[in-house]
Amino acid sequence: MITPEFIAIWIAWLMAGGSPGPATMGIAGTAMSEGRSSALAFASGILAGSASWGIAAALGLSAVMLANVWVFELLRYAGAAYLGWLALKALKRAMAKDTTAAAGTPFKGSFRSLFAKGAAVHITNPKAILSWASIYAIVAPTDATPATLFGYFAALFAGSILIFIGYAFLFSSPSIVRGYRRASRAFDLAFAGFFGFAGYKILTARLQ
Predict the structure, then answer these.
(1) Which residue, 49, 17, 64, 194, is CA-closest to 114?
(2) Residue 208: partners with Cβ closer than 8 Å, 6 or more residues away
(3) Is 106 helix (H, G, I), strand (E, B) or coil?
(4) Which helix (H) or strand (E) holds 98?
(5) H runs (alpha helix) in 22-144
(6) Which end of the chain is less packed: N or C, by CB atoms within 10 Å?
């Protein structure tokens, strides 16, 4: 099952997951402003959303959903609206005169609330299931058994855990937090840009 080709794809999966986007930027902002525990709660929600799409793709539900485009259309508009709202919040903080307010985070609340918000970021992104489905199409043989498919899921999901939990630990370190405090407006502008661009890409994406 683990071939050199799969290892190359796994590394590419890590690089794609670690690149700036709604999930990684949300985890980073939460970690720097609210601390490691809050970031881990938010990252756990991200991982739950990712696992939902990964399992759905492994079970073949992605093919069913692709045949019903309205499901993706609904998710697309919901995801774009949610990300647009996050972009506006970050932009408002960046423009605030109070530097303390500008050092805020896009995500705060109880651990349960943070988990739910993290899951919402991933579940409302139709690109997530398309990513999982495309990976299975690339690496899985046509006669793959359920055990093989879930083996791929376990390996890929382990990579996601490394990335998202790693972000929570990295960006909650004191040195990173101090850097964030000194450049909070720049970070919030970056958050606004990433969330806005991600929402735009989701809204304008061709799903078929």
Answers:
(1) 49
(2) 66, 69
(3) coil
(4) none
(5) 22-34, 36-58, 61-66, 69-95, 99-102, 111-123, 126-139
(6) C
Separation of alpha carbons 16 and 23, rounded Å: 11
What is the pLDDT of the chain when averaged over all its residues? 78
Give the Cα separation of 156 and 173 in Å (integer).
26
Residue whose C-alpha is closest to residue 25's, from 65, 73, 96, 83: 83
| Radius of gyration, alpha carbons of the chain | 18
Distance CA 160, CA 79 (A): 20
CA distance 204 to 20: 19
Distances (CA, A) of 21 to 9, 27, 129: 19, 10, 16
What's the residue count for the chain? 208
**Cβ proximity of 122 and 46 under 8 Å:** yes
Average pLDDT over residues 175-191: 75
- Give the pLDDT confidence of 62-105 residue by residue, as tens digits: 555 556 666 667 766 776 776 687 778 778 877 875 544 434 44
Cα 24 to chain centroid, rounded = 6
